[in-house]
Write a structure and sequence with these properties.
Helix 6 crosses helix 11. This protein is of the alpha+beta class and 444 residues long. The chain starts with a helix and ends with a helix. 34% of the residues are buried. The chain has 2 domains: 226 residues, no CATH class; 182 residues, Alpha-Beta Plaits (2-Layer Sandwich).
């Protein structure tokens, strides 16, 4: 169960573990309330989380000319292609229609469902039953079961609604990639991209600077509950600004509007609560909508300095800078920090300074690590960003064993895995990249 708690909902192992631990334990154990009252207390707690102040719905979006390519009717081929990607054992929402049932539909029923999907897409209307989340709560590790904040919400959505959402996501992704809208540094949930891209980019960058006898300062930023708090109106403004396909934009507007949830435990549920902000947990569209929402941050960082490097992976932001002088590194990284701070304020996001951290990497033959003794003076609203020896980048702790494990996952042969105390200096990203390209067919 500890592994389940520490995993992210985006990880396959998380959902696998959830299925084997699906018997819920009593909620708010030890609190002198009946089950219905406990569910209401928890529902009100999470209702406050999904309540960004900029939640007011606006209707003046997507009034430009409608092009044909991404606005046309959904075809049976699209339907079948996305249906094949569904996992049969995935849990259903309140409508109780599972993926397994949908996959067993005869062709006549599929055609009728396709008509419903096309009506939803054409008129920009998402049925209410598809927008009600069934939330199951899991107690966080080493947390007080009497406190509502000690529970982690897991959302189960309508499988039928998620199938149409997957189709819309496929189209929106194709549109975004065809227009080169996302900055190249964004690797989150993009085809052919993974956490390895970001890790290898850092390794390559640091390796090159080592050869020039330069140090590298790395800062990892944390947005507080970013996926739960981004503004619905903010998302629509971005899509409108980017002139996303009209039918998709209108559908997304209905998809985000008037969402709700109920806390579910042992066949009992709380009253329905409205979700006024955030992208749906477990939704196929959520990662792409968030990536589009913060895409301008990448553009702003690109303009700051040629010495600055960064990676984005959904809501994870990592920035680094290399130079022979610590004060130059500090100056550039503080400017980047101010850009991120201002962007967060403008978009209604909050930076959790306590969870932000930095380290300095420098080649030093007299020490078994890369941690350099100098400090940086980086702050957000007067609060200092803490220094750490082994930060966690995209779930990977930056020490030698974890890097070796990362490369093992890449299926590289043994002679590429000669990890020493100076991993960034001895492993060349270009070598790894070329090997993966040359052996792509054999490795897949």
């Amino acid at each position: 169960m500890n592994f389940l708690i520490e995993s992210k909902p985006s990880e396959k192992v998380f959902w696998k573990s959830l299925k084997t631990n699906n018997s819920q334990k009593p909620l708010l154990e030890g609190v002198n309330l009946n089950e219905e009252e406990k569910l209401e207390v928890l529902a009100k707690h999470f209702e406050a989380t999904f309540n960004n102040k900029e939640g007011t719905r606006q209707t003046n979006f997507f009034k430009y000319y409608k092009t044909l390519k991404f606005n046309k009717e959904i075809t049976l081929n699209e339907f079948e292609m996305n249906l094949n990607k569904l996992k049969p054992k995935e849990s259903s929402g309140f409508d109780l229609i599972s993926n397994k049932i949908i996959k067993l539909f005869p062709l006549t029923v599929k055609n009728e469902l396709l008509k419903i999907f096309n009506a939803s897409f054409k008129f920009g209307y998402v049925p209410k039953i598809w927008k009600i989340a069934k939330i199951i709560l899991i107690l966080k590790k080493n947390s007080d079961p009497k406190l509502p904040a000690s529970y982690r919400p897991i959302s189960l959505l309508s499988c039928v609604g998620k199938l149409l959402e997957r189709i819309i996501n496929t189209r929106l992704t194709e549109w975004a990639e065809s227009k080169n809208i996302l900055v190249d540094e964004q690797s989150g949930f993009r085809k052919g991209r993974s956490t390895q891209n970001a890790i290898f980019k850092l390794i390559e960058s640091v390796s090159k600077k080592f050869k020039k006898k330069q140090k590298t300062g790395l800062v990892l930023y944390d947005f507080a509950k970013a996926f739960d708090t981004i503004s619905h109106v903010g998302i629509l403004k971005i899509l409108n600004k980017l002139r996303c396909p009209v039918a998709i934009g209108n559908w997304v507007q209905s998809y985000l509007d008037n969402r709700s949830f109920k806390i579910w435990n042992e066949k009992k549920s709380s009253s329905e609560k409205i979700i006024k902000s955030g992208v749906p947990q477990g939704g196929c569209l959520s990662a792409l909508l968030f990536a589009l929402f913060i895409n301008d941050l990448g553009k702003k960082l690109k303009k700051l300095s040629p010495k600055l490097n960064f990676t984005l992976f959904a809501d994870d932001v990592s920035v680094w800078c290399s130079h022979s002088k610590i004060n130059c590194i500090n100056k550039t990284l503080q400017k980047a920090t101010m850009i991120i701070k201002k962007f967060a304020e403008n978009r209604g996001l909050k930076i959790n300074v306590e969870k932000c951290n930095y380290l300095i990497i420098a080649r030093n033959f007299n020490r078994p690590s890369y941690i350099f003794s100098s400090n940086l003076n980086l702050n957000i609203n007067g609060v200092q960003i803490k220094k750490t020896e082994y930060p966690t980048l995209l779930g990977i702790t930056l020490d030698n064993p974890k890097l070796e494990n990362l490369l093992n996952k890449s299926k590289l042969p043994p002679h590429y895995l000669q990890i020493t105390n100076y991993v960034p200096y001895t492993i060349q990203y270009s070598t790894i990249r070329n090997y993966l390209k040359e052996n792509k067919k054999r490795l897949t």
